[in-house]
Write a structure and sequence with these properties.
mainly alpha; single chain; 13 helices
């Protein structure tokens, strides 16, 4: 078993997948030796590689006393370059990788709320929040490194300082796809087999994209998908009960606010700064805002959910419906982005003033006492605005 786990975590397995998809690490030049060698197994003298991996970082793990050079080069080496030989797969996997980022879900999940069914959006946000918190915490507790480069080509740099197992992209894509598949039949009329095919395809593309971009090992991706399926299996019998409590209990908004805030402040500490705490706080804040907003809508007696006998037919795609949908998207995005910018700016000003931090200190927002409340309040506000105000703005504008 240990040999199998080591094999699945081997970066060379990821590198072989990249090469089969047409992505090659073609150059590594050591200035002290003056040599150039391709990492597809043969020397390479082509200095015109089509792309370049941006960035390199040195990371000191204080817990294991081990220094990790993510790109694998000694000091004085040039940045690794790569060649793309299959642009179709290249763009397909880059788009698929984008589907797993937090900003995609925070921006695009509301579209389901605006144009389809707020019930489905609420349930998706609930499961997304749970699986992402579990995945992010597991990363920082297990502390398994991401694949090394070389031999792997790294196409992303922002999350290099994060650990690898499990892949939260794989977790989120699996949870969102199959939560929607399991929840939609009671709300919408559609062919289940088609929905299953779409769920499998989308989640698989996101999982494979994490290998193609060199950000995760095969073990990271498999574990991420399996953890999500386990969470779905364990929680599915209680989804209806959670819905009822979330919408009707007088303590629901307090729980929705206090529990995520507590989890954000008690997020595991690392010996170095990582984006995981901030990203997790963002997700917990958005989930809290969504939950509070849905509770308020029930109290106001206007949930904007489909009326009549359920399940309802899927909306017909006409030029008129697409135009209205696009208009709702523009108005909604402007409202959410505007809310984010205003609340983020105000919260940082208040916190900087409260803690006596100079505005010129660009690293201050990484401190827990500033990062956590700022991100939590910002995305709590985004969730509340989306749940309560945006659809009411649509009514005023005649968009629904």
């Amino acid at each position: 078993m240990l040999e199998l786990l080591a094999y699945l975590h081997d970066p060379e397995l990821v590198a072989r997948f990249q090469r089969r998809c047409g992505l090659f690490l073609v150059e590594a030049k050591n200035h002290s030796r003056g040599s150039t060698r391709a990492h597809n197994g043969t020397p390479d003298h082509n200095d015109k590689a089509r792309g370049q991996v941006e960035g390199r970082w040195d990371h000191q793990d204080r817990n294991s006393n081990y220094t990790h050079k993510e790109n694998g080069y000694a000091n004085g080496c040039s940045r690794p370059q790569y060649e793309v030989r299959n642009w179709l797969l290249h763009f397909l996997f880059l788009v698929s990788a984008g589907l797993g980022h937090e900003i995609f879900y925070i921006t695009c999940l509301p579209i389901i709320h605006w144009s389809l069914d707020p019930f489905l959006c609420r349930r998706l946000v609930n499961m997304w929040t749970v699986v992402m918190y579990v995945g992010q915490v597991m990363k920082d507790l297990l502390k398994l490194p991401r694949p090394l480069s070389p031999p792997v080509v790294k196409l992303e740099t922002r999350v290099d300082a994060e650990y690898g197992l499990p892949s939260t992209h794989a977790m989120a894509a699996t949870a969102i796809s199959f939560t929607l598949l399991l929840s939609a039949p009671s709300r919408l009329q559609f062919q289940f087999e088609v929905g299953l095919l779409i769920a499998v395809t989308l989640s698989s593309l996101v999982c494979l994209s994490r290998l193609y971009t060199g950000m995760h090992s095969v073990l990271d991706v498999i574990c991420g998908a399996l953890i999500s399926f386990t969470i779905l299996f364990l929680t599915y019998p209680y989804w209806e009960s959670v819905d009822h409590f979330q919408l009707t209990s007088p303590i629901s908004p307090f729980m929705a606010f206090l529990l995520p805030l507590f989890l954000s402040y008690t997020y595991p500490e690392l010996g170095h700064y990582s984006t995981t705490r901030g990203d997790t706080t963002t997700i917990l804040g958005a989930g809290a805002g969504s939950s509070i907003g849905c509770w308020v809508n029930v109290q106001l007696g206007q949930t904007f959910e489909p009326q009549g006998e359920l399940p309802v037919p899927l909306p017909t795609l006409t030029a008129n419906s697409l135009a209205f949908g696009f208009a709702r998207f523009l108005v909604g995005v402007v409202a959410l982005v505007g809310t984010r910018q205003v609340v983020k700016t105000l919260s940082l000003r208040v916190l900087y003033s409260w803690y006596g931090v100079p505005k010129s200190d660009s690293n201050a927002r990484r401190r827990r006492e500033i990062e956590v409340p700022s991100k939590f309040v910002t995305y709590l506000s985004v969730g509340v605005v989306n749940s309560i105000l945006v659809n009411r703005v649509f009514l005023v504008l005649g968009l629904i």
